[in-house]
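In this section we walk through a basic example: taking a raw amino acid sequence and producing a predicted 3D structure, encoded as discrete structure tokens. The instruction is simple. Fold the sequence below.
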Amino acid sequence: MIVVVGDLIVDEYIWGDAERISPEAPVPVVRVERTERRLGGSANVVRNLHALGVPAAMVGVVGADEPGAWAQRRLAELGVDASGLVVKKNGRPTPIKTRVIARHQQVVRIDREWTEPVSAEVHARQLVVLDRLLKQAKALVLSDYGKGQLTPAFIEEAIRMAQGRPVIVDPYPPHAEAYRGATTITPNLHEAAAMTGMPARNDDAHAEQLARMLYDRLQLSFTLITRSEHGMTLWDGARAHHLPTEARDVFDVTGAGDTVVAVLAAALAEGATPLEAARLANRAAGIVVGKVGAATATWEEIGERPCAS
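The resulting token sequence is shown next.
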């Protein structure tokens, strides 16, 4: 089992067609054909683990609202242990990202969210559950979208509690120092630049420099920087590995980072080396960006399963 802690988000999609420009403003008029909901944020990591056949547990917060109830039902359908999911009844809503998509292109995104930190009382309850879950877990994922679930103090305690298990962090740059001692972080190039105060140049030498800086500063086992069309750069403490993208067609990068984290965690939990895990994650990312919306990849699509070291 892998435990995922982080900001649960509900992704909404409005699919339609755009054939004309509005007479009211220079924007397309989208004729709605269908709507859809998917688990997003940290819950999309869980969704990706489910697609890989990996049992998962979820720690996070939802609002006492209809989207929150929907997310709980969906997690139950996936067989996820959601005992660490707290329902807040004090007006804190479930974060929702609504994307309007016409002709396979995202037209606009609308965010409805609350980013105030979760209370110390809720965190104390969650840490009790996390301690129990980690006793059965092979790895811990911290999925930090900056929506309030993960605070520096909570992050530091969660990493301490993991006690030698792989800890994979999808980072939020303002929380950088709290990730010290994790196994790895998976920032994109711009996040890595923000965390180091360096420019965001997308060439191999600069990506290696960013990865090494984060590795040294945060005392990681390895650093993995995702670089969009340039693939990934892995720094393992001895050398850099630049993995070219395996994407054939790019329709939508939504949720690709969640797929990377899920595959990386699943592989590390089975004893794969950092390079083996990164190669699988890179391949999976190339698959999901060829789909529209936050998508998942299976081991069958990836074409390979993790190898124990």
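Looking at the output, two observations stand out. The chain has a mean pLDDT of 93. The two ends are 19 Å apart (CA to CA). In the next section we compare this with other chains.
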